[in-house]
C-alpha cells in the first residue's frame, strides 16, 4: 500500500508537469504524440487519423484511434500506411531485440527508466500519456475479493483461465523480482504491468498501443509489421478501406486456432484464446471465440477445444470442434459446470451486496471489489455460460444425428470490451 501511495504521488507530480493536449470536447487527442512521431525523418502518421474517445465528451467512453470525420478528412484506403513508428520512438530492449522473443526483462527495465525521467525522457510525449494509464484491468491486479470470486466462477481453475494463467499474467513477484532479478520499486512495478498490458512482443509502440481490440472480421481493419531487426520501424496499414468516423482496430489474437487469418498476417505473437484475452486484459472479446477446457481423468488431461462464432447467413451461434468431438464424459463435465454457474447467477443479488464496495468506499479495500471488477467478472461468467450452453447443444445435436452443429441461443452480449 505504501508503495502504491508513493507511485500515486510520483504520478501526480509528473502528470501535472505538462498538461495533455485535448480536443474541443476536453478529451485527450494525442496531438503532441502525432507531432513527435512526424518530426522524425522516418516517422509518419496518416493525416486522417484521430485519437480520442469513442463517444466524444463522455469521460466513461474509452480512448481509441479513428478516421477523422472533420471537414476535408479523407478515408484511409486499403494498403495505405496508417503510421510508421521509427525505432527511436519505440521503447524496447535495445540491442537485445529479437523479433521471435515475446518477453524481455530489459525492455521493462528501459520503460521504468523512462517513466522515472518523466518530462526529461527522450520519449516525453509518450511517457506523458503512459503516466495517466491504469494497471487495474488485469485480474492478477484485482482486489482479493474479486480474485476470490473469479476463482469461484472458474471452480478454482477447473474452467479456464486457470489461476496460474491469470495470476501469473500479473505475477510481479515471480516474473519481475525473481526471474528478472530486479528491485521492488513502485515505478518498476507500474512499468511491469504497463508492459504486460500494452506491449507488442517486447515493444512499447506509441499510437499503435492506443488501438482497441476486435477479432470481428467485419470490424478488423489493420495489419501490422514489427521490426525484423534493431533499427527498423514498426508499420501498420489498412487491410481494407476505413471510412471517416470508423474506429481503427487491432487484434490481440489474430492467429488463434479459430482465426481465418492468412499466414502472412501472423507476424506478431497473437495466438491467445478467449480465456487468455480475459486473463491478460480483463475483458471479454467479441465473437468469434476460441475456447479450450482441460478435463482431468486421474493424471491424464483431456483437452477440449472449439470455436464459437455466428453464422453469416442467420446470425446463429455455431460450434466447430477442434481435433475431435468430445464424448459423453466431456458432455457430463459441461453439464456439471453449467449447473454450477447457474447457481452462482441465481445468487447474484446477494453476492453483490456481500462483495461489492458501496459507492464512495475506499478503493484500496481488499475485502470488497470495485464495480469495474464486479462487472468484468459477470461478463466472463456470462461468456462461459454461453460457450458451455453452445457446446452442450452442439453435442446433443450431433448425438441425435442432426446434419449441422449450428444452433440458436439467446445472445446476451457479444459486443465485447476493449481497453
Name a few traits of the molecule.
single chain, 419 residues, alpha+beta, four-stranded antiparallel sheet, four-stranded mixed sheet, 12 helices, 34% helix, 14% strand, globular, disordered C terminus
- Label the structural class: alpha+beta
Amino- and carboxy-terminal Cα gap? 25 Å
Q: Can you summarize the main beta sheet?
A: 4 strands, antiparallel
The percentage of residues in β strands lies in 5-15%
Order of helices and strands: HHEEEEHHHHHHEEEEHEEEHHHE
The Rg value, from CA coordinates, equals 22 Å
Shape: globular
Lateral arrangement of strands in the main beta sheet = 1-4-7-6
> What fraction, in percent, of the residue positions are helical?
25-40%
